[in-house]
């Protein structure tokens, strides 16, 4: 997979993916990531990427010319099932595991990092295939959301995570939050590991884990539990 990121502050990515699972995958060539400075696609000597909004109002808006130039230079002309342009913006579709799965099957992903008061509307209308938000809160720009997407997408690629089973059992992958996890010591400050995990009965452990996952999801994310239960009825 090839991922291009168009950013106002590309320096933020300098060490973000040099470590851990994603860093090892990058060194193995399991994916390619290139981060591009939006200012490199300007044509004026001041390298201006933003301007005041028509009609007045606070803040600045990212100009269309450099964004169009950047995306057009990166597009390969493939079909939408192989290549997509995604804009990171608060008004986009909420990022979830299913969307990460959908993005992970692409061969080429272009991420545009929004900033300031947003981007010129013509970028959204003419250039972008999908708008994505990582949550209902305000950040300084799209660089951090882009990092979230890269991390979430790359770990789904073949060969990145050592065990495919660990991917399947993760929180959200099956629609529920994760069940409680324990390791040594058995007794820590008087709090003991549940006996059911020590008896080697894999079926009972599986049932216990699913029960605890449902309980945790009901407590912390009842919206997810409702969605999960609805999917099981279909």
Automatic annotation (TrEMBL):
GO cellular component, one term: cytosol
GO MF annotations, alphabetized: tRNA (guanine(37)-N1)-methyltransferase activity
Pfam families for this protein: tRNA_m1G_MT (PF01746)
Binding residue positions for S-adenosyl-L-methionine: 114, 134-139
First-tier enzyme category under EC: transferase
Catalytic activity: guanosine(37) in tRNA + S-adenosyl-L-methionine = N(1)-methylguanosine(37) in tRNA + S-adenosyl-L-homocysteine + H(+)
Subunit structure: Homodimer.
Protein's name according to its UniProt entry: tRNA (guanine-N(1)-)-methyltransferase
Encoding gene, per UniProt annotation: trmD
